[in-house]
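Box 3.1. Reading complex inputs
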Amino acid sequence: MLLDFDGPVCSIFAGLPATEVAARMVTDLQTAGEVTPDEWSGERDPLALLRRIADARADLVPRADGLLERAENEAAKTALPTAGASEMLRACADGGRSVWVVSNNAGSAIRTYLHDHNLTPFVAGVFGRIPGDPSSLKPNPRLLNDAIAMAMAKPSECVFIGDAARDVEAGTAAGIATIGYANKPGKAESLANAGAVSVIESMSSIADALL
Ligand SMILES: [Mg+2]
């Protein structure tokens, strides 16, 4: 079982808003003496901002990614658990299914969250974005491929659960069936259009299906 983090496991930016993290990234670069484009200041999604920075100024990626990772670790402390996620992880453990978290978030922040919520024993491994390499972000299948290799599994033996079209696209590129988790209005259609084999509205439904 391959599992996206932000969405299926928790809302990482529930307490420290993503918009504030993106603003911090821009301010930090400005403090370092960099002139930042207006579109960076208008970007509300810190991961999308990291991609923009990589596209325009690859030399600034290490600093921006480092600040983002620290902010994600701070955010992990006030993340809001997704209803049914813990039950789903326990159901996987009971059924002998190993779970690998594959996420665009920083691996350290994911491990912080799992530790704080006593979920570490239920996760076989964590594959966060490669530090300083935003090209590793989904929809690139690289992180999924790495997880499958570490699990010594075939793509056909795996299923991936994600809440964004880019998760489904990454799953398709890796040859894995992806279940869409539609946690907001309008997402079900975009996940289905992206090619999700099924769309669920509650993580509890996965736990129930595994019992
Ligand atoms: Mg997500």
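In summary: The chain is about 45% helix and 10% strand.
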